[in-house]
# Entry
Amino acid sequence: MFLVYRLQSTGCNELIGEAAMKTSRLPAISEPTASRPTLRDLARSLNVSHTTVSRVLSGQGADYISEQTRSRVIEAARQMRYRPNRAARTLATGKTGLISLWMGDLFRPYYVRTMQHVTREIEGTGYETVVYHIRSASVSPASLFTAADGLLVHDWGEVVESYLEYEPYALPLVSMGVQYTERTDFVGIDVYPGAVAAMQHLVATGRKRIVFVSHHARDGENEVRYRAYCEVMTQAGLPSEVVWVDLTRTACRETVRDYLAGNAGADALFCLSDDIAIAAYRAAHDCGQRVPEDIALVGCDDIEETQYLETTLSTISLPIPEMCRIATQFLQNRIADPTIARQQIILSPTFLKRDSS
# Structure
C-alpha cells in the first residue's frame, strides 16, 4: 500500500497531480506464473554464461565483465521480471548469502553509524546484511538462532557468551566494539587510554570537581571509562562523584539539570557517551551555566552532532570505520576457512579536544 502525504505549501496541488500521473503509468503487477525465470534462463536468452549472469546480479566480478554486458544482463532481468530464489540458492550452495549484525540499539547515532559502515563494507561482497535488535543480555538462547552465513555482534559480549554456551556448532562470528568477548574472533576497542587522556586534560585545565555521568543499566562501576575516571581522580587527589542517568536524552537532561541546580561547584562533566554529553550540555544551559567557562564537558564516541553544537563538544573518537572494515574481513576469512587461527585485534581511540573543555 502506498501512502501519499499532502504538502501544505504553494504548488502542492501541481506536485500531487504530477505524482498521480506518474503513478498511473506504472506497469501492472503480473499474475503469478507456473514457473519463474532462473539464472540459466537469463543466460540462454543472452547467449552468455550462467557465471556471467550470476556475477552481474550479485554485484561481484566488476573487473571481469564489461559495462555493455552488465547493462544487457540487468535489462534482460528487468524485462523477464527475474527475482532471485534465495531458498533454491541456499539448497544448492549451502549458503544463505546473509550476514547477520546483532546490535543492542538501532536508533542512537553511535549505533546507526556502525550499521552504515558495516553495510558499506559488506556491499559488493555477494552478501546482504540483516540487522537484529538484541534487547537484553539475558535473552533466551533459543531466540538467537538465525539464518545467516556469519554473525557480527556489536557491543554485546554477554550475548555472544550466551550464544556460545547454548550452540556448540556456532556460526562464524566476530565480536566487535567496546564490549566484546575473547572467545571468538574479535575487533575490540580499548577506550581506556582515550578516557585517561580526556580526564588528564580536564585535570590539567584546573578543574577540581569533575563528575562522571553514566548510564547505570549496563555500564556500572566496572565500566572501563569509569575505571579511568576514578584512577585519574585518585592520582590528582580529587574526590570521585557520579551521576547515574537514563539513556534517553530527555531523561538525562532532567537528571543532570536537577543535579546541577542542587550541587553548586561542579566544574566539569565527563560523560559516558556523546548522547549523554549533548543532554548534559542542554542541562547546563538550562541552569544558566556557560560551557566551558562555568563547566567543561567531555563525551565519548565522536558522533557527528558533536561538531554542530554552538560550542563544539570534546570527545573520545572511536575508530568505527576501521573496526567495521577489519571485522567484516575477519568474518569473510572465517567463512572461507573455519580452520584458520583465531583473529583478534585491539584498536585505540583518540581524544579530540574541542571548545567544550
